[in-house]
Prior knowledge:
heterodimer, A: alpha+beta, Cytochrome Bc1 Complex, Chain A, domain 1, 2 domains, four-stranded antiparallel sheet, B: Cytochrome Bc1 Complex, Chain A, domain 1, five-stranded mixed sheet, 15 helices
Amino acid sequence: MLASILLIASTMVPGDSLPFPRLERAVSTIPAAVVLHRQPGLKVVSLRLSVLANDPPGYAGAGHMIQHLLYPSLKERAARVGGQLQMQRTSDAIVYTLTGPASELRYMAQLLTSTLSPAAAPVDAILRAERDLREERLAEWETAPSHARSTLRAQLFPADISAAGTDRSATRLTASALPRIWADLYDPENVSVVAAGDVYLQDVQEAFADLPSRSGAAPLPISRDSVVLGSLAPAQATRGWIASAYLASDQPPAAVNVAVRLLGDRLRRIVPNAQVDAEHWWTHHGQAAALIAAAPQPDLTGLRRAMGTVVAALLEDVSFLQVTDAAAAIRRELLFYSRTPARMTDVIGQFVDREGDAEALERFYNDLDDLDDRDVRAVLERLIERTPARIEIPPQTLRTR
Amino acid sequence: MRRLIGAAAAAITLLAADISAQERMAIITESGTPVVVTELLLTVGPTNELAADAGLAHLSARSVIAPIQMVIDSLGARVSVLPQKDALSISVIAAPDVWEVATEKILKAVFQTPPDSVSTIRQRQAIVGELRGRQANPADAATREADRHFFGAEHPWGRSTVGTPESVSSLSFADVRTFTREHFTRERARVAVLGPVDAASATEHLRPLLGAVSPAPVEVEPYVSALNRVRRDYNSVTTWVSVSFRFPESGDEEAIRFIAFLAGEELSFSPSQRSVYNVSTTVEPRIGSGELRLQVVIPPEEASDWAERVESIVPGLLARSMPADVFAGHLRRYYGDRLIKLLAPEDRAHAAVRQLLVRGETDVLVPDPTLLTQDRIRAAARSLARPTIVLLGPTLEK
């Protein structure tokens, strides 16, 4: 079964001062692509199983609802080996991450594999999951920063509907519809497994050798989504919030990442009283550079001006040293973040899901090392040419009688 | 300048006095770990402070680190200070290409560079602010009360390791300067380095920074724990029950950790035990003796029942034998739980340097669980002393 396994040990770029830890990858006859980061420091393993899938049109939120239905049982079964379970619905994939003793690899793999053939759910569980999803949808619009993010994302990537779905699609996620929806979105060819810990690649492959096959899907009655561009709830804000996001899908990710970091740093310097989040949004739907900032009422005019001019100002004087320093800092932060096995699988897995390529993380990591100010200038020039998506949320005031 | 050590030193017993051969460094090579963690453990703490100066060791550590914080940030490294009863930890997490520079900066700041007054005053203000912000926290109050009665009100470990807003406010720059000069010395240092490092070159790097000195004896004052149940009135909506058992230095640490795990499982919220708000268990091996502490948060009207319940857990373990499959099930969960607590490399470095301090050497951080038997668990339970029980919460009875 595993005869045609091709094991590739990645090599570092010569002269690379800060290599990313070695990854092992397998391209095999088993449906799932398996990537391993071997970390023999502690006898644990973190397994991240992801199914690349968009919810079928008209059934937004289905993938995440199935996760909610499975979660209580998975958590209880993970606890039998002292394991920790996390689930995530990203824009790219349905993801489960399980961390536990390396000696329990088989048990953990079986548990994760069981998520690929979800059992029919009773009505009470469906109702509970429906309520959870509704809460998640509302939470996305409740506070000012998440409200701003949801608005901007809806403008830039209208097809990237919230993982929690929409009120309209929720009515279609019934006990009888869910098995058909799952049959529509599951394909073993789209399963990836990322492992980090004290295990060997062949053992991981063997543990995930028996993925359920795709069942014949009956056509679903609905075939299009109603995209929601308006907000579901007014935002709560004690300060004024200004956010803008630029589409950057055609730009090299490493350069966008550094540009975003420099934009954030600059904005913080210009408006020291502001809280600034500079984010690089990157999914299979595309890339964007987002700036989300909050300031007290008296500083809002200054913040508005700074947000409007920060790209041009950075373009004017971005230097080689700034770029290389920022790139080095990002590389170090990536290492710092991925210091536990679960986070390591998260970082590697995001790249695998997004790019469909196990080498994507190393490529991004090495690209950071090769950047100079011209790459960042090119990104900034492209941003300036575009009209950003923008939202402003005024601070709430107390009404006096 | 204050009298710092004279009065306190009189009551101190020097334990593990003959430790000149003790290794002070543990280098743990982990090829796949993406960062390098260096944990410096200084055997300095409340034992070296007067009661009125509580928190001086902590303030001193933060004051020596503060001036180089920007340099550490610029390297993309992280540094943190953790005060404990018997020592002070300074932990540095850095990328493999800068760990040596970051560690060198920290060790030089601790051992060579005197603190500056501006950093000291800023850190003092920050700590006082943090302490004031936590004064109304019942979890902190429960820990303070449990410490006071387990170690004794007059014992240095019976005080808060970070001091009080009043004690920290009264500390001067001169106090900090004198304290660091006298106590932040290489003789008191143990270091663990963990990550993708070459053991020989890491040792070469650290040796000149730590100097060729023999480790100083560790100062531990014997303590007498309260054996009567202690009730303390506290204005909260819950009651905190703390039950602390002492175990000997030679105690079976792994078996005692398993006992803590079993106790945690037995006391946790469940459908038949809906009134438990929270359960925590800690096992702290120290030079001289260790401590197992169980803590439950419950409704005030159930305080006495729960105190008895928690106290009876250890005798219960001694009295009964578990069916083999039930024991195996517990062991399976325990092993995973134990590993999960060491997922972060900084937690493993901390565990390693604590082993170095208490045992004089580092060993496997999580031993093979199959070696734990019911007989071992019972023997460990027998080694636990009579517990100190502290109830903190509102008084309901008239």
